[in-house]
C-alpha cells in the first residue's frame, strides 16, 4: 500500500471529525446532567496527559538520539510534582474552585488584589511563551505529513507539490477552525468544557497506543529484542554513553518541566480549571506518572534502532514514522501518524482555548469596559457575545502567531529546543505562583516586578537567540552583544561563557525573577484588597466554609445589578441567580438592602465568566458612588484577617485542650492504679505485722501468770516470742529495704567486684542453714574469677536469698541444691537449682512480685514473707543484670542470675 | 467429739490458742489449711470452729461457705480470727453467718470469752456430756 498525501490528510480530517463527534456527544451528555464516566478520575488523568505533545511523541526519540537520557527529565519533572508535590496542586484546585478561577492569569491577578495589570502581564507572557510551542506542533504535523506521504515519492498528488510553509499554513487554518468549533460554542459558567476534555482523553489513549504499537513493533518485531538492538547499536558505532545524563542541563530540564506542568496555561486549564472533583487528584498523582512511564518505555530502543539502521542524516524526530515505513508497514506508520497528530491537536486545542480565555477576559473585556464610558453605552453590547467573538479571534490570532514563528525559525530541525524555550517562558510564573500559595505578604508590585524581570531576561537569553538563523541582526547580537557590548551577549550574560544556553537562561532569569519578587514585596505594601485575597489564598484550608468576606457594599438598585448580570451571564442564568438568592430583579427604586453577601456572590459568578479583575471593575462601576472608603476597606481586611486567625487559634486551642484532657485521663488512671497498689501493699504489710504480733501478745499474756506453767513451757513460749520478734524485725527491715529500692536510685556505688568470690562467701553463709535442714549443697561447673560492677553486700544478699530459698523450700527425701556458674556472651551467669517441688506454674508470672509465696502444698511453717525475691529482683535490676526462673539440672526450681561483666579496659578505668 | 476445731496456718498462733483453750477445759482439734479444715470438721464434728481467713489451699471464707452448705455442719458456730481487719472481710464473714469476728492481735481473754459465750448458749450434745 502506498500512502498518498491526499489519503493521509483525509485520514487526519476524518479523525478530527471523529473527535468533534465525540466532543459533541459528551457535551450533550454533560448538559443532561448525565456526565458519569466523563467526570471520572481516569478521564481527568488522561486529559492531564495533554502534557505529552507531539514534542514528546516525536521529539523524545529525537532527544534520545541526540542527547541520550535527557528526554527522561521531561517526564521526571512532572512525576516529581504529581508524586511529591500533589499538596500544592490540591491547594491550587481548592482555591480555584472557591474563587471561580478561569485561568492562570486570573489566578495570579485574583491573588494580587484582582489586579488587571498582573492579569495582562501574565496573559502577554503566556501568549509569547506558548507561540513557539504552537509553532512546534505545526512543525510536527507538517513534518509528519511529509514523512509519511512524500517519503514514498508519489508525485502524482497535487498536495505533494505543496511546500512545507503552505502545508503548515493549511494545518494552522484547519486547527483554528476546528478549535473555534470545539471550544467556543458557548461561554461556560466555570469555563469547563466536558466535551473537549473527553476528546483530549480519547486522544491520550490513541497516542499512547500508537507509541506502544511502534515500540513493540520495533523491539519485538524487527529489532529482535532489547539485547539485539543494543548489540546492533554498539556494532553500528552509536555513541550510547556520549552525553552525561545528570549534568547541569539535565537538572535545568528537570526543573523547567516541573514548572511547566504547573504553570503552562493548558496544564492549568486541564488540571485546575477543568477539574470536577478535588479527589480525582489522588488518582492522577499516581496514574499520570504511570502514563508518562508507559510513554517513555520504548523511546530509547526506538532511538537506538533508528540510529543503527536508518541512513545517516535521517531525521531522528521522525523515527516513529520512518521505521515502520522502511519495512513497508504503512498501516502502522499511519497509526503512528494519527498518534502524533493526536498529541499535536490536543495541545493546540487546549492551549488555544486557555489562551483565548485569558486574552478575552483580561485584555478584550477590560478594553471594552473602558471604552464604554457609561453603563448604558456598554449595555448596548452583549458582553457574552463579545466574549465569544473575542475568543474566536484570539484563537485564530494564536495560531497565526504560531505559524509566523514557525515560518521565521524554519532553520532549526529539532523539535525539543523549541519546547524548552516555551517552558523557560512559563517557568517565570512559578515564583509568583508559589508566593501566591504560601507567602501571605507577597505584594502585587513584587509579583509584577519578578515576573516581568524574569520574562525580559528569558526573552533576551533564550527567545531572541532562537531567531538567529532567520535574522542576521539577531545572529550578530548573539555573537557580539548589542552595540558591541559583550557583557550583554544573550547567551553569555556578564561574561558567563561556556555554559549551556538553556542552563544559562534558567539561571539568570530565575535569579532576577526571585530577587525582584522578594525585594519588591519587601519594599512595597499591600492594598486592602490584596490583603483580603492573600488571606483567602494562603489560608484556603483554614477558612471556615461559611465564611464569606464582604468586599463590596451595595446600595445599588437591584435592577442595575441585574442589568450587569444579564449582560455577562445571559438573561436566564442571571434570572436564576437572582431568584435563588431571593433578590427581586425588577425593582427600580434604589432602596437600601441588596445584601452584601449577594453582591459578593454575584462577583464570583461574574468572575467565573470574565475573570476576577474584570468582574471587580464591572461591579465597582455598577455601584459607583458607593465605593467603600479606604478606612473601611482596611477595616474589612483586618476583620477578615482576624477572623481567619482567630478561628485558626480556636482550632489549635481546642486541639490542645483535647490532648491535655487525654493526658490528665491517663495520669488519673495511673494514679488510681498506684493508689490501689498502695492499699494492697498496706493491707499485706498490716497482715504480715499482725501475725507475729498475735503470738507475741498471746504468749506474753500467758506468761503474765507464770505459776501455771512448767519451766519447759515457759522456756518454749519465751523462745517463740523471741523468734517472732526477730521475724517482725526482719519484716520491717525488708520493707524499708524495699522502699529504698523503689525510690528509683540505688543507694550504693557499683565497683568492680569478683562475683565468684561473693558467691563463695554466700554459699559458706548458707552452709549452716543447709546442715540444719540436712540439705547438701553441690557445686557444679564454676566460672573462675569474674569481675562485675556491683556492690559486694547487695550481691551477697541476692545470692543468700536465692540459695536460702532453695534450701528451705526443699522437702525432697534427699534434698540437694546445685550451684553452677559460667561466663558467656551475656556476662556472668549463676544457676541455683534444687530438687524440691519446684514453683507451681500458676506462680511463674508473679514469683518476683511482692508478698507472693509460692508455697508448695503441705510445706509447714515456712517463714518467708514473700518480699525476698522481690528485693533480689530489684537489686539485680539495679546491677543491670537479670534474675529469672528457668529450667535447671535438677527437677525442682532453678533461678538464674545474669550479670554484665566488665571488660579489661573498664576494670582499669574504674578504681 | 471435739469441742473446738482450730484452723490456723501460723504454728506459733496455733500453739498459743491450743494452750489457752485446753487450759480452760475444752478439747481441741487442729487443722493447718482449708482442705484439712473441712476434713477435720467432718471427722471431729466440733461444737465450734475457730477459723483464720488467710489459709493455704482454701481460704477461710471459702471453708465457711462450704460448712454452711453442708447439712451436718451448717449449724456449727464459726468464730473468725484474722489479721486482715478490713471491713469487707468482716462483712463477707457476717454474710456467711459467721458467729463472731476477732481481729489479730487479740487479748487471750477476748478469745476465751467469745468461745465461752457461744458454747454456753448451745446445749452440749448428750454423748459429749457423758464423756466429760
TrEMBL record, chain A:
Record bears the keyword DNA-binding: no
Membrane topology: Multi-pass membrane protein
TM stretches of this protein: 6-25, 37-60, 72-89, 118-136, 165-184, 196-227, 247-265, 286-306, 331-355, 391-408, 414-439, 446-468
One function term, GO molecular function aspect: transmembrane transporter activity
Domain Histidine kinase: 684-903
Main subcellular location of this protein, as a coarse class: membrane
Coiled-coil regions listed in the entry: 657-684
Subcellular localization, as worded in the UniProt entry: Membrane
Record's keyword terms, sorted: Coiled coil, Kinase, Membrane, Phosphoprotein, Transferase, Transmembrane, Transmembrane helix, Two-component regulatory system
Documented EC number(s): 2.7.13.3
One Pfam family of this chain: HisKA
Cellular compartments per GO CC: membrane
Catalytic activity from the UniProt record: ATP + protein L-histidine = ADP + protein N-phospho-L-histidine
Stated family: Belongs to the sodium:solute symporter (SSF) (TC 2.A.21) family.
Name used for this protein in its record: histidine kinase
Organism per entry: Mycoplana dimorpha
Lineage: Bacteria, Pseudomonadati, Pseudomonadota, Alphaproteobacteria, Hyphomicrobiales
TrEMBL record, chain B:
GO BP annotations, alphabetical order: phosphorelay signal transduction system
Entries under SMART domains matching the protein: REC (SM00448)
Stored SUPFAM superfamilies: CheY-like (SSF52172)
Signal peptide boundaries: none
Keyword Hydrolase carried by entry: no
Protein name in UniProt: Response regulator receiver domain-containing protein
Modification 4-aspartylphosphate occurs at: 52
InterPro entries in the record: Bact_response_regulator, CheY-like_superfamily, Sig_transdc_resp-reg_receiver
UniProt domain Response regulatory: residue ranges: 3-119
Presence of the UniProt keyword Phosphoprotein in the record: yes
Keywords associated with the record: Phosphoprotein
